[in-house]
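Human: I'm a chemist; would you kindly supply sequence and structure tokens for a protein?

Assistant:
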Amino acid sequence: MNSERDDISTTRHAAWNARLAAAATIVVSFWIVGHSLGQSKVLFEQSTLDANRIENRFAAQQGVTTTSSAVGFVLLGAMGFVCWMTSSSAGINWRHPLMWFCAAYVGWCVASLLWTTDSAQTVRKLGILGLMLIGAYGAATRFDMDDLLAIMLLALGGLVGVGVLAELGLGMFRPWRSDYRFAGTCHPNDQAVQCALLALAAAGAVWMKRDRPWMRRLLIAAGLAGLALSKSRTTLLALIVAAALAAVLSAKGMQRWLVMSIGTAVLCLGSIAANFVSVSDLDQSMNVASMGRRENVSSLTGRLPLWNELWKSAEKRPLAGHGYGGFWGEKNVLKYSAIFAWHIPHAHNGYLDLMLAVGVIGAALYLAWVVATAVVAGVRFERWGDAGDLFVVCLLVFSLVHAVTESKFPGAGIGAYFVLMAMAAVAIRVPALAAGFATSSQLAPVQVADEHQWQFNRERMARPQ
């Protein structure tokens, strides 16, 4: 090792028992909120029934706050509080400008109590948001990015693994069926997010003091396999965009332009080739692109008519919205579910849901917070090459793309919580190299950094201060 690097100390990661405890708490919290061992069987049985013959559980959930949901989010907040109480103030900066973005968005959400159409619903949703923020920022004070990535892997790997075992135990694991979608212990769309984030986190993880490529590749493969079996097109597209961005940002100098040029060339050649293929081949390609789900593709599985109808409500209160969480009360869930004959818990578009909740102003504040965090993380990656920052950039871009046809981000699920946790870490944790020390994973041999290979594992040399 070079002598100039000997002057740089390494950070001390949290013990694995602390990581396990945090991951277990997160799993238990979200399990009691929205997971069930028999979920795959319930969904299969309901798939053969008309929507009018099935109880609208979304409306029931919006009507009252269940004990299990309350316990789950309180447990998450309690974990954050314990993490904060047991953390060290070293390397923590609560005055970072990103905190103003967070305060502005949250403050606007709280202010929406003044004009909400459903005050009880807004109070409940604000309580959930507050507990998730406490859990996210508390975890960020106790764990560094390496620790947080390990916690994500443990939690997501556990949920996906239990989901596979649950389906196997119930005899519902049937990937050979054309109508099969991997659900596990939750809805297939939620499972897809978990699988995609498992692959993304595994790509950026550092195992103890040295990288274990075989373990990363195994988890990435498992995440991708689960995503493919869930047949979630939105999540797949978001992951592809995030991976493409990682390829571009990881390359340096002329290689970055080369990667961008190759990507552009592939897209152009694909467009040209599409004009020369036969109708049957094009139809087969569409079937692959839609992951075998060709029903209602032209209307984005019924989303376009829903968006047109919801836009009318958004236009009534364009600036301030209907109040945080105030629009999707029991009344509107039942109303739109009856109109379109399928159970609708949200707009299936994160940006439209933001407008319905907190208007254009609130949506702009949230986007500014996310984009500013991504920019800060991207600048840090360019300066120091810490792949934890690259992971945050890709995670936030994933959430922004995913929000085009889904409402998981922002939301109250485990994926949205991990986004908050990553944003909190960027905001309050002082970068290791800026503080005069580096993580052990940043002190890899110089020759690896010169290869500029696309990989998230932290193999770039730390620049001495």
In short: The longest helix spans residues 350-384. The chain has one domain: 9-450.
